[in-house]
Write a structure and sequence with these properties.
The complex is a heterodimer. By secondary structure, chain A is an alpha/beta fold. Chain A has 8 helices and 10 strands. In chain A, α3 (98-108) packs across α4, α3 packs parallel to α5 and α7 (207-213) crosses α8 (247-270). Chain B has one domain (44-246): MetI-like (MetI-like fold, Orthogonal Bundle). Classes of the chains: A alpha/beta, B mainly alpha. The interface between A and B is medium-sized, with 29 and 21 residues.
Amino acid sequence: MTQESFVDFQNVWLAYNDELLAENHFAVEDINLQVKQGEFIAIVGPSGCGKSTFMKLTTGLKMPSKGRILVDGQPVTGPLKISGMAFQASSLLPWRTTLDNVLLPLEIVEPYRSNFKRNKAEYAERARKLLNTVGLGGYEDKFPWELSGGMQQRASICRALIHEPKMLLLDEPFGALDAFTREELWCILRDLWTEQKFNVILVTHDLRESVFLADTVYVMSKSPGRFVVKKEIDLPRPRDLEITYTPEFTNIVHELRGHIGAMRKTGAAINP
Amino acid sequence: MNKKSLESWSPWILLLLSILIWEGLCRAFNVSEFIFPSPSRIAQQTIEYRDVIAGHAWRTYWVTMVGFGIAIVVGVLLGFIIGSSRLAYAAVYPLMTAFNALPKAAFVPILVVWFGIGIGPAILTAFLISFFPIMVNIATGLATLEPELEDVLRVLGAKRWDVLVKVGLPRSMPYFYGSLKVAITLAFVGTTVSEMTASNEGIGYLLISAGSAMQMGLAFSGLVVVGAMAMLMYELFSYIEKRTTGWAHRSSQGE
């Protein structure tokens, strides 16, 4: 019973423009990756290794120079509306309330767009529910600048999820938060994912975060941007924050750290 | 008096002090009113000629507002075009900068040839001098969009137009109101300068005729009236700005 891959990268190479392509200078090289339906993957690696490029490829914002990308069985030919994105900066619009910020995607993406005015009450209700599940009940009518950093990030994740995407892409979403808030948001993301089982691609440089949340962790190297390690995390689910203090957890983190450390050393040898 | 009310009264206090010093200096050195009239003399002449001044002031006011209105329309349209297209930005911006560097008073003789003495040159000078800041600010507001946010929207299938209307325009509103405050004061400069040579009405004309008749008090009251009108309009736009785009000024409001 082999399951169809939901995201399928086949020998994907990307150079940002034709000149770089002519010089054989690629941002990411030879990416092969198969993600199952509903799988939570994390990509870790040093900054500038092409993690964000990988996200742009997955969502169809960038087309590969070589190779093929299939998502949900279909070749990617343009922006993929079945994806929601959130970044390190929440980038909420300061002139909209939290609720209106969360509703923004529905004003743009079809099929919601055409009947947005008619069904606004229903959509607002959905947004309220979603905000409630991330602990933002009662903050719907506040403006983003009246919220703390952690709350803004929760709202940003709600905005990414409001159109019920099949795939959630997170680019260091918790990078700017303090350690306690970050762990709180890990749990919120875990619960959302457990409930809705969308695919998640989490880009991060926090190894503990990746091991705690993901089914599979990929380690990326920098120039060339390649996937060098694939590590399945077989820690039992549901996972509780307590698990991060167990030796099994620490061993995995340590092992991944070893890969990154080794990479940095060889990198240093190549470019002294 | 606490700190806050002192702050709000400070311009008036400064104004009063300056007037007192001015008056004092004029009296102490017995300055001739044909050279430099004292505030009391200016006030006296203002009251004496109040009907004449009011007539000229009204003319200058509405001419300025017409020119300013055109400047808003043209400035917003041009700003929208160059802010939403890189090509248009590259093509238009250098030329606009060069144009902005030209002294607008130099256009007045040309405008007189085209439109004759009267409101035409005054309206157009007010327009020419004040559309540039509006255009630049709208363009800046539109062009400064976080790339992440653009990705979030583009992946949903947003067209350029969606991004401009949902994000670009609201974001540029604070810049827009900010630019109105600058532009309105410039528009008054434009009108007055034009009226000085190309009109038989308006504060600019009043300044010239009062000057040539050695009515220095009257000339100064003309200046005071233009200054006051520009101040009032500035305050008006500043009020509208605070009411409509409060989200951009939250830190200064002390939350």
